[in-house]
Design goal:
With 86 residues, the protein is of the alpha+beta class. It has one domain. Strands 1-2-3 form a three-stranded antiparallel β-sheet. A hairpin with a 6-residue loop joins strand 2 and strand 3. The longest helix is centred in the middle third of the chain and has 14 residues. It binds zinc ion. Zinc ion binds next to loops. Zinc ion (ZN) binds next to loops.
């Protein structure tokens, strides 16, 4: 499958059991029908567990700037950022 934007051949990433086609050139992400629903479902499952939610809030939303500076590769802010982090 080619990127509709720049015609580069898309690469496939497996994120938590969901296949995501993405373009290494323009960073576009192309989901087959149903894939986005699966991701959102998993996200909802994840956050329906209150302790997950609270630990993510602590991990991602606590404004500890020094922590982010010392861990530049751990800037993920949400479950979806995690999914779309290539
Ligand atoms: Zn592209």
């Amino acid at each position: 499958m080619k990127c509709p934007t720049c015609q580069t051949t898309l690469l496939i990433a497996d994120k938590k059991g969901v296949e995501i086609d993405y373009c290494p050139d323009c960073r576009g992400i192309w989901l087959d029908r149903g894939e986005l629903e699966k991701i959102l479902e998993r996200s909802a499952d994840h956050y329906s567990n209150r302790s997950n939610y609270e630990s993510d809030v602590k991990k991602y939303h606590y404004s500890d700037n020094d922590h982010y500076k010392s861990h530049p590769h751990k800037k993920k802010k949400s479950f979806l950022d995690d999914i779309f982090d290539f």
